[in-house]
Amino acid sequence: MYRFLLSRQWVILTLLGLALMPVMVQLGFWQLHRHQDRVAHNELIADSLAADPVPVTELTGTERQPAAEDRFRRVTASGVYDTGHEVVVRRRTAADGREVGYFVLTPLIRADGTALLVNRGWVPGSGDQRTFPEVPDAPGGTVTLTGRLMRDETTEATGIKVREGLPDRQVMLINSADREKELGRPVLGGFVELTDTAPRPAPDELAQQVPEPDQSGIGAHMAYAVQWWLFTAAVPVGWVVLLRRELRDRRAAAAGPTADGPGRDVPADRRDAPARTPARTAAGAGTAD
Q: Where are the transmembrane segments (predicted)?
């Protein structure tokens, strides 16, 4: 009765199910890890933003990047803006995520001669990406700023590819090593997203501030993980259901129709006729003779 399991159709079906189950289990764990990473990321942001500001040199230096766990930490720094080496970072979105424009990246020259890259905020584009956009003037004189410390941007981390032949004073990524070559002076690793400046600049000296990173949502990764594991459990259940259906159909076909079995068709003119006994049959035969 079970030899049909060795048929080509059932062998392929069984092998397909066995191959899909471990794949779906791994997909579930992949979504689980994404959920855990998102939760850890949100906790890192919350802890960093809640911490008191510290001098920027406590967390970064000219020969090192900020540690991964120090991302989004609030830091302070003092110096004079070098507007002569100011650049804009292309294809960056505003706070609402809809309009595409530029980040304004201005070096802050510290008292020891080292530079700190400062993302002063977002400005809209002019419509012509080949021209330098209208940028608010940086405050003059010595300023003390507060901002969120970030690691250098790279193509691997952001997915943004560096293009050759860009217009003058435009870049694709915020990278301290690249800017150090242009500045000709040591640059602290990473950069700072500006949140406050003292003395307070005039309104026309302020770009649109880069908003705090989102730490509210964790996505649907956990739901997707459970979904993949339910799919995994459904494979053997579905296989058993198909097996039982196949067995039922084969047993029914092997039994075949019975003469007096249920469902036998009876002519309409005989459904209500009385049964003919052998005696009546014999009598009828004698009369006919």
A: 222-242
